[in-house]
Amino acid sequence: MRIYFLQQWFGLSDPAVEEALYDTPLLARFVGLDLGVDVVPDESTILRFRHLLEQHGLSARILETVNRILTERGLMLKSGTIVDATLIAAPSSTKNASGQRDPEMHQTKKGNQWYFGMKAHVGVDAASGLVHTVVATAANVADVTQAHRLLHGQETDVFADAGYQGVDKRAENQGKQVAWHVAMRGRASAGHWTRALFLAR
């Protein structure tokens, strides 16, 4: 389980975390391995464990438990949320066990580049930078359609990039008492933001 945490915290792939356990004694000690005695799990074992967690829906439950503990200890303030999404590209030839293209993966265009895969939509505590919500969709799902799923319900402010323009007008966000701070298209880097105060209707 601790190896899984290292992967999440440091963004390590299965091969990278295996290598890190050999190269960084502190990480090996953290996961409870004595490199002189214990066998380090290889990348395929780590992959199988991660898939087991996903198959049984344990990843989401682990995230909820960690977030509850962080909140109880005052490390997650919950007054603001940053929402964003990132593409998780897969080779376009990716097939599932039945030899078909995975129906959960789709093609999408970002800029002038085409991608095939999925998208991770993430809600992050604005004060601490800790992730509190993750939603996975096909790559072609628009960011703005998932914003409501990334809120925990206690925030007063939500910050987003230009991909969330119009979020305050969407039906699923009606009645939320949230101030949406959304970057304007083409000017986010200059710090130009729009602000839509969303009050209960």
TrEMBL record:
<protein>
    <submittedName>
        <fullName>IS5 family transposase</fullName>
    </submittedName>
</protein>
<keyword id="KW-0233">DNA recombination</keyword>
<feature type="domain" description="Transposase InsH N-terminal">
    <location>
        <begin position="2"/>
        <end position="51"/>
    </location>
</feature>
<dbReference type="Pfam" id="PF05598">
    <property type="entry name" value="DUF772"/>
</dbReference>
<comment type="function">
    <text>Involved in the transposition of the insertion sequence IS5.</text>
</comment>
<dbReference type="InterPro" id="IPR002559">
    <property type="entry name" value="Transposase_11"/>
</dbReference>
<dbReference type="Pfam" id="PF01609">
    <property type="entry name" value="DDE_Tnp_1"/>
</dbReference>
<keyword id="KW-0238">DNA-binding</keyword>
<keyword id="KW-0815">Transposition</keyword>
<feature type="domain" description="Transposase IS4-like">
    <location>
        <begin position="78"/>
        <end position="188"/>
    </location>
</feature>
<dbReference type="InterPro" id="IPR047959">
    <property type="entry name" value="Transpos_IS5"/>
</dbReference>
<dbReference type="GO" id="GO:0003677">
    <property type="term" value="F:DNA binding"/>
</dbReference>
<dbReference type="GO" id="GO:0006313">
    <property type="term" value="P:DNA transposition"/>
</dbReference>
<dbReference type="InterPro" id="IPR008490">
    <property type="entry name" value="Transposase_InsH_N"/>
</dbReference>
<comment type="similarity">
    <text>Belongs to the transposase 11 family.</text>
</comment>
<dbReference type="GO" id="GO:0004803">
    <property type="term" value="F:transposase activity"/>
</dbReference>
